[in-house]
């Protein structure tokens, strides 16, 4: 099951990726009350209880890998819920092709958009998918109006492969050749993988 990342922290320059836990749900729920985010993520508003259910199912599901995106400048140091900027997901939903991952990024905190947080989080998730989950192809489905996101994926070498005018959605795709793989690992060679349990413990607690 997708508990592979339940103790994984990926620490980059701008962002740190941590597993999605129950502690993150209230803030996540608050974000998802925004009509703009509902539209951009094509999702229905849920009650807090439903959002908790969702978080549990995500943690248990074998075909989803999800991280909460924290601001590296704020965490560790500040409370996680005050450092949350968004989330990044990988869906392994193509039963015929387990090497295909659909990637989704959301920078929910308006003040944190346009600063390269989404780009670094996406690169980190892609490198994780390639190294740990055996992904060789990525797909991203993005609302046509979300030009910033489409543009970002194109900068990450994705190519537009389809437009669905009914869902008003663009599908972008990247096949990870050896060259792309090398590029991806170079882009993320500063990223450190750590243990979530250890990082959450304030220094000194483990020594006593």
From TrEMBL:
GO MF annotations, alphabetized: tubulin N-terminal-methionine acetyltransferase activity
Keywords for the protein's UniProt record, in alphabetical order: Acyltransferase, Transferase
Catalytic reactions on record: N-terminal L-methionyl-[tubulin] + acetyl-CoA = N-terminal N(alpha)-acetyl-L-methionyl-[tubulin] + CoA + H(+)
The keyword Nucleus belongs to this UniProt entry's keyword annotation: no
Limits of the N-acetyltransferase domain: 15-159
Keyword rRNA-binding: no
This enzyme's EC code(s): 2.3.1.308
Similarity section: Belongs to the acetyltransferase family. GNAT subfamily.
Function: N-acetyltransferase that mediates the acetylation of the N-terminal residues of alpha- and beta-tubulin.
Protein name: Alpha/beta-tubulin-N-acetyltransferase 9
Organism from which the protein derives: Hylia prasina (green hylia)
Gene: Nat9
